[in-house]
Amino acid sequence: MEKIQVLDLGGSIVAPEQIDTDFLKEMRDFLTDWLKEDEERKIILIIGGGAPARKYQQAYKGTEKNPSNEELDWIGIMATRLNAQMIKAVMSDYCKDPVVTDPSVVKSMTGRILVAAGWKPGWSTDYDAVLLAETFGAGTILNLSNIKKVYTADPNLDPSAKALDKISWEEYQKICGDTWTPGKNTPFDPVATKKARELKMKVIAADGKDLSNLNKIFHEGDFEGTIIGPE
Question: How far is Cα 29 from Cα 231, in angstroms, rounded to an integer?
Fold first, then answer.
């Protein structure tokens, strides 16, 4: 089991519509209990934008005939930073560093939990998660959102879509595409996919609110989710 767990938390579970305070307390207790089991353990949390990003992006689109993708990205990034600052406060006993907004300059962490948000336009927080995992030597990223598994297609649009237990990076890239657009709805974004594939990392996509299942992942048990990994 890795000593550093990198959790890429989708905004869909942090702030689906309203801030889910019950979940935040449960997640805090779960993560701190895991840290207490071994003093060498550390956690990196990368936080998505959720409903605040979506609502503000839609508001901007409502004012412009040709909304700028860069501006849409910046709006989403600011939402991730708001969510991340809240998570840092929730984890304050263990999180001593400021919220990371530029993963390229981070080389160490003072506390046992490090919280990160969006960086700059061109990708989602998934890419930031890959960069931080590379820096801290973590070979696996836990991509936690409101879906239990990766599907062959969007199950809301394609009734024939099938849930996957495992998929190679090559096959996953075909599903998610090659380019990023603000608000793109894929479990793991195309830019992050390219980088993770290059680094031969593994991503586990799972339901972030199922803490019993997350405990199985942490302790290398049988879990429900999708492994995206090297060919």
Answer: 36
Q: Would you say 189 and 180 are in contact if contact means Cβ atoms under 8 Å apart?
A: yes
7, 41 Cβ separation under 8 angstroms: no
Q: Which residue has the tokens 């339901």?
A: 207
Per-residue pLDDT tens digits for 186-227: 788 999 999 999 999 999 999 999 999 999 999 999 999 999
The CB density around residue 105, as the number of other CB atoms within 10 Å, is: 8
Overall size of the chain counted in residues: 231
User: Is the CB of residue 75 less than 8 Å from the CB of residue 142?
Assistant: no
Tokens 């237990």 correspond to: 165
Q: Which amino acid is at 187?
A: P
Give the span between the Cα atoms of 202 and 19, in whole angstroms: 29
Nearest to 98 by CA among 115, 122, 119: 115
* Predicted TM-score of the model (pTM): 0.93
> DSSP alpha helices (H): ranges in the chain?
11-14, 21-36, 50-61, 69-90, 125-135, 169-176, 190-199, 211-218
Task: Give residue-wise pLDDT tens across range 32-44.
Answer: 999 999 999 999 9
- The answer for residues whose C-beta is within 8 angstroms of residue 29's C-beta and 6 or more apart is none
* Domains of the chain: residue spans and CATH: 4-229 (3.40.1160.10)
